[in-house]
Amino acid sequence: xxxxxxxxxxxxxxxxxxxxxxxxxxxxxxxxxxxxxxxxxxxxxxxxxxxxxxxxxxxxxxxxxxxxxxxxxxxxxxxxxxxxxxxxxxxxxxxxxxxxxxxxxxxxxxxxxxxxxxxxxxxxxxxxxxxxxxxxxxxxxxxxxxxxxxxxxxxxxxxxxxxxxxxxxxxxxxxxxxxxxxxxxxxxxxxxxxxxxxxxxxxxxxxxxxxxxxxxxxxxxxxxxxxxxxxxxxxxxxxxxxxxxxxxxxxxxxxxxxxxxxxxxxxxxxxxxxxxxxxxxxxxxxxxxxxxxxxxxxxxxxxxxxxxxxxxxxxxxxxxxxxxxxxxxxxxxxxxxxxxxxxxxxxxxxxxxxxxxxxxxxxxxxxx
Amino acid sequence: xxxxxxxxxxxxxxxxxxxxxxxxxxxxxxxxxxxxxxxxxxxxxxxxxxxxxxxxxxxxxxxxxxxxxxxxxxxxxxxxxxxxxxxxxxxxxxxxxxxxxxxxxxxxxxxxxxxxxxxxxxxxxxxxxxxxxxxxxxxxxxxxxxxxxxxxxxxxxxxxxxxxxxxxxxxxxxxxxxxxxxxxxxxxxxxxxxxxxxxxxxxxxxxxxxxxxxxxxxxxxxxxxxxxxxxxxxxxxxxxxxxxxxxxxxxxxxxxxxxxxxxxxxxxxxxxxxxxxxxxxxxxxxxxxxxxxxxxxxxxxxxxxxxxxxxxxxxxxxxxxxxxxxxxxxxxxxxxxxxxxxxxxxxxxxxxxxxxxxxxxxxxxxxxxxxxxxxxxxxxxxxxxxxxxxxxxxxxxxxxxxxxxxxxxxxxxxxxxxxxxxxxxxxxxxxxxxxxxxxxxxxxxxxxxxxxxxxxxxxxxxxxxxxxxxxxxxxxxxxxxxxxxxxxxxxxxxxxxxxxxxxxxxxxxxxxxxxxxxxxxxxxxxxxxxxxxxxxxxxxx
Lengths: 368, 541
Known about the structure:
The complex is a heterodimer of chains A (368) and B (541). By secondary structure, chain A is mostly helical. Helices cover 71% and strands 0% of the residues of chain A. Chain A folds into two domains: 14-112, no CATH class; 138-365, Orthogonal Bundle (MetI-like fold), CATH 1.10.3720. Chain A is built from 15 helices and no strands. In chain A, α6 (139-170) runs parallel beside α10 (227-255) and α14 (321-331) runs antiparallel to α15 (335-364). The two termini of chain A are 53 Å apart. In chain B, the strands form five sheets. Chain B has a five-stranded mixed β-sheet. The A-B interface holds A 57, 115, 117-123, 134, 140, 204-207, 220-225, 227, 230, 309-317, 327, 329-335 and B 128-129, 131-132, 135-136, 138-139, 141, 157, 161, 248, 257-259, 261-262, 317-322, 324, 331-332, 335, 337, 484-485, 487-488, 491-492, 495, 498-504, 521-522, 525-527, 530.
């Protein structure tokens, strides 16, 4: 017998597996798969009235699926022996993802092409492209998408503020650690708490402290009366919560900068501004882009502050896509249409973020 | 109790163990009872509970609710023996608005649990989450509660789908249903002739105003306005004047201009009912034969136009566009901003008993304002006759037992006993007199002397209760349809109204047309034929 050569650590010896065992392994996989399909078809036929008897719920189909998943995992070892055990490191997790992500996504895709209204006695009925056509003519949805453009653009302002704060906290200032913690506090608050503390308390038009100060100064306060001002306050509250997130990322980037390069620029006689513009900012580009991209992804999910403070008003001026879908789905129980809006938004986000990453990829690498 | 003491009593009195335990339990229960409960027995219970905690003694607390629950157990004890429901667990789904509703129910039912041995688990929901949670439970077949606090507008969704348990006769007797005000009797609470609802509330919107704005020297004029035309005029005239109580800018009528999960639409209805609810037909939201929306007829357009006129005149407080009904009642009117409001009766009971109200001494009440003209939809023309049509918004909360208890007689009896306790004649008097979220809804609630004994002054209570009684008994009351998905209609209307109020539609008519178009879509989605049938049934047509 010759000794095996090469990478001994990662080599799995081939088991001598009898054919009967292999056949058994395949049989339990196919048998259980057949059971899942048969139960699903039967249940479908029962629910659509084609057969008289069936289960009260889909739970037996779920149990059959779990049986199939277990059989599939077991069969890896039965059929492939030691080699199959390696597959078992990944397979359960993959099945878990399929069960909890892929399947619900497919189910949502089906729902989004139905007219499912929870109050309807008929349940979900496929309605072709009706929901898509309705979306195309839905002024509220397009208005919300337009608002999302404003909200996303606001990230640029947040970035400038966050960068400024990061530079300040990176400098040799007194009580630096204290300020780092203080500036992080808003991030630790739930946006719902921020909505109530600021939007509905501090900005309360009659008793809120900010209103009182303004009134003392002779200004009649109005924070959510006009579309632009209302949108500004939503942006401000959201920014207040999430600027610390960008700031902490940028601060980490600043602290990781090679000090010798910055010192060299000073030796060469660069002013503070020149040093920032020519050295620090270019070196910080990869971190900056990462922070901005993550912040945009957060921003695309903006909803809680809007729902609590303005409900999308005045006249939809502050509506985000998520807050509109929330209303469509929750208040109006319009599950089919609401799901379609969410699916379309998901596709738009995937396209937007992919393009964004493509465009910014050239700045993601730290310059040599 | 100590063992040696137990043995001593047993030996001295020749008691057996069972008698001994019964005696101890009775003694314990008596010791736990509030002093006032001993007063004069059942006859005086109503007077005694109204003293807890007493008007002007601050908002009631959990211990007060428990005391009231304990003192009102007599009716339960007539139908249920002690410990009869031991081992039974029930789940109760209700609201947690302003720390009322379920918070009170917990206190009221605690002595009931102690007496019957049943245990109640609670599902607390915010008002805005209520509709979604209920609809999802129904649609997905996951009704995970045995008792629900529910408004009559949802009866189409729940009773129409056979999800509730029919009320046993002994419950009808225990809660004395004949005492209900007329409009809460059948068909409300019934479906296909069967009774399902224990009423705990009677809803109508009534008019609240600040008396210090009106009178000989009042900045709002000598007389309190009684029509929407007068209200709009007074609201415009008040611009630039100073509030006599707070010294801040004076304001007239407070319309909520922001949505409230569908519930905000009731407040446009208040204006519209006077214009649109003609005495010749119970229908004023949809045409009964077609479900064609009436919301864009001239009557409704006038109501929307009234609001737009006040926006244009700058008659509302700043940021009114962001004020929902919770804001107009609790942050504005009760806190001293604005002089006129339409709301449920909570404003009346809270004006005097809530810690946050500053208008208790200057508040007056009336019924839903009238209109100087009414639109006759059948003829398609305005009639220059005065029309009153109080808005019975929401028709009140009730307690319903779900069909989940069917098949388990012990559980079913327990659920109905709990519901009957909450809807008891005496307990409901207390709930209508103190902050609870509920309005008077029984004829026996309108005995003014009982309220006077509780500490209310006669003039205030006659004024407040009178406005409710006049609304309930009004021959042209605008009753809400109990059709499936009613809050979907209201919610989408709120969105369109918000656009209209923000000036995004060219006119009130355009706004109303947008609402009508959205309502047509919902009707088609839910099913036009079934909606027509339910709508007609709910109107008794």
